[in-house]
Design brief:
The chain has a single domain, classed as Collagenase (Catalytic Domain) (3-Layer(aba) Sandwich), CATH 3.40.390.30. Helices cover 50% and strands 16% of the residues. It contains 5 helices and 4 strands, in the order βαβαββααα. Helix 1 packs parallel to helix 4, helix 3 crosses helix 4 and helix 4 packs across helix 5.
């Protein structure tokens, strides 16, 4: 299984959007695995409210505010299962406020951003940000395609 989608209690997301998001993020995860010549990776995607992501942001990053997306990579641990990439947490509340291209587009953007962090990308400088954005865009393109998943 490449994706485990969890929607927190109280978070409302239409069933068609939820299904489409799950399908497309799973394609992105599979595309990452194909790039790394693996059968698959495992990723958990949690959709939550601002209050929940605020708590996580404060506990893990020391930032006392909600944010749009957090990524918790598992591959960095010495004894990590290399097939388990980690967890992506997205605030639906923040995604809705930021959505300029619709909620689906924003959620897919945030999921691709989080997925890149799980893969080891960062954006501490312009070069890193450019490389990360290029990979995230390739993942989103693959998410929207039909047919067999290709490396991205």
């Amino acid at each position: 299984m490449s994706l485990d989608l969890v929607v927190d209690d109280g978070v409302v997301i239409a069933a068609p959007l939820r299904a489409r998001l799950a399908r497309e993020v799973a394609r992105m995860v599979k595309a990452c695995a194909r790039t790394d010549r693996r059968a698959d990776y495992e990723v958990a995607l949690r959709l939550c409210a601002d209050a929940a992501i605020h708590e996580l942001n404060k506990a893990w990053r020391g930032k006392d505010a909600p944010t749009d997306v957090l990524a918790f990579a598992q591959r960095e641990a010495a004894t990590a299962d290399q097939g388990l990439l980690g967890d992506i947490v997205i605030s639906i509340d923040t995604a809705k406020r930021q959505a300029k291209r619709g909620l689906h587009g924003e959620l897919l953007h945030l999921a691709s951003h989080g997925l890149c962090h799980l893969l080891g990308y960062d954006h501490r400088d312009d070069a890193e940000e450019q490389a990360m954005n290029k990979r995230a865009a390739a993942l989103r393109r693959e998410a929207g395609r039909s047919g067999r998943v290709r490396a991205a």
